[in-house]
Specification:
Length: 157
């Protein structure tokens, strides 16, 4: 993978340091990213998102979803109740996992559901009124009335 230098982005933007830091973290190859369990992140509306994680073999009691320190933490631990089973082939991975998704500012988790082996976590971005763009009216300058001296002149001819 090719390395990118984000230094010009830092100089050209004001207040977008988190975006550049996030891109920098994603582009670095220093730490291998876990691939289990697979997940999707989709945009469901202008300010709504959904994270879908494939959690086949886990029940609702095995899964944990929590928000802490600006990050969404999803973890699972399978309690194997029936250890006397003998598998000829075990292709459904039910090993413990922990996934961490950093949340952007003003993003709130609004719910989670588990159906058909998929864990769906719905997110909503709520921008406070103080941070929403607002239109500033430009006041018209008052017409400055000046007393013009009017000179009566007679035409000479």
């Amino acid at each position: 993978m090719r390395g990118y230098d984000f230094a010009p982005l830092y100089r050209a933007t004001v207040g977008f340091d988190q975006i550049a830091d996030l891109m920098d973290r994603v582009m670095t190859n220093e730490v291998s990213q876990p691939t289990y369990p697979p997940y999707n992140i989709e945009k469901t509306a202008d300010d709504a998102y959904r994270i879908s994680i494939a959690v086949a073999g886990f029940s609702d009691d095995d899964l944990s979803v929590e928000v802490k320190d600006g990050a969404l933490n999803v973890s699972a631990r399978k309690v194997d109740e029936n250890e006397e089973r003998t598998y000829l082939h075990r292709g459904i991975a039910t090993r413990a996992f922990q996934r961490r998704f950093p949340l952007a500012d003003h993003v709130r988790v609004i719910g989670a559901s588990h159906e058909n082996g998929m864990l769906h976590i719905d997110l909503q971005r709520e921008i406070p009124e103080a941070l929403k763009p607002r239109r500033i009216e430009i006041a018209k300058a008052d017409a400055v009335e000046t007393d013009k001296d009017v000179v009566d002149a007679q035409s000479v001819n």
